[in-house]
Write a structure and sequence with these properties.
With 256 residues, the protein is mainly β. Helices cover 7% and strands 31% of the residues. The chain is built from one helix and 17 strands. Strands 11, 12, 14, 15 and 16 form a five-stranded antiparallel sheet that branches. It has a four-stranded antiparallel sheet with strand order 1-2-3-4, with no helix packed on it. The protein has a four-stranded antiparallel sheet with strand order 10-9-17-13, with no helix packed on it. A hairpin with a 3-residue loop joins β3 and β4. The chain is rod-shaped and about 115 Å long.
Length: 256
């Protein structure tokens, strides 16, 4: 609602000698404004609970909640829940008055640009079922913990401007150079000495990653022969004589 303008007068109401007839117009104006306020509420509604809420006026820049009760639900200091700042910016939990943070108990739809001046914890992007929200638009800032950016999409396209994301991939290769457990659309082929050098192509377009390989079987060992921006080569050897020999292995790639 639009709050009624404070243009009421009491010229004919502030003295014992004032005439009720002359005061009629002022009383009517007062009743009209009260009716405007009452029209916005249903009978029995609690419009304002001043016990636990403290706000200056409808024209105030600060909306404070729980200011007069710093015990039953914890201390929140100045308790500025909403503050209108310069530049037409609405700030929630101004200067972190509510030290427990802000909790959203429903789906969150961000129509504009999501930015962060601090780190974004990927765990906070998990829904109740463990799936990542997919409606983040142009998220910026540093995203910590592991998150698959393929799950963060805008209109079907993966978000690419979240920085410093650690992604982990794993797979298993059979001794003959075929997949037992294939990550995504990656490819594998066996070649080199005794066909025991396995080229795994990932097409990440970056060499900023680490690979860990573990042979399946106590009589073998695995080494990283080489790596490039789009592939790496794992070699398997007989651990008794260090001669290349085919063996199955697990691997993990950590891309930072």
């Amino acid at each position: 609602m639009v709050w009624p303008t404070d243009d009421l007068t009491k010229t004919h109401l502030d003295a014992g000698t004032d005439s009720p007839a002359n005061a009629r117009a002022e009383l009517e104006a007062l009743i009209d404004k009260v009716k405007l306020i009452l029209a916005e509420a249903t009978a029995g509604d609690t419009i304002w609970n001043s016990t636990n809420t403290n706000v200056s006026s409808p024209g105030s820049f600060d909306f404070k909640m729980g200011f007069n009760d710093q015990v039953s639900r914890g201390s929140s200091g100045t308790s500025r829940a909403l503050v209108k700042e310069s530049g037409s910016v609405l700030t929630v939990n101004y200067q972190g008055d509510f030290t427990g943070g802000v909790k959203v108990d429903s789906n969150l739809n961000v129509a504009g640009t999501l930015t962060s001046t601090n780190n974004i914890d990927a765990d906070l992007l998990n829904g109740q079922g463990g799936s990542y929200y997919n409606d983040l638009s142009n998220a910026t800032g540093t995203l910590t913990n592991n998150v698959d950016t393929d799950s963060l999409t805008v209109n079907g396209s993966a978000i690419t401007d979240i920085v410093n994301i650690t992604k982990m991939y794993s797979g298993q290769v059979a001794s003959g150079g075929t997949w037992t457990d294939q990550p995504g659309s990656w490819t594998v082929s066996a070649g080199g000495t005794s066909n025991s050098q396995y080229t795994i192509t990932h097409n990440l377009g970056s060499s900023n990653y680490a690979v860990i390989a573990t042979p399946i079987g106590a009589s073998f060992k695995a080494i990283i022969v080489s790596k490039s921006t789009n592939s790496f080569v794992i070699g398997t050897l007989d651990s008794s004589n260090n001669v290349y020999s085919q063996a199955a292995f697990d691997f993990m790639l950590i891309h930072g």
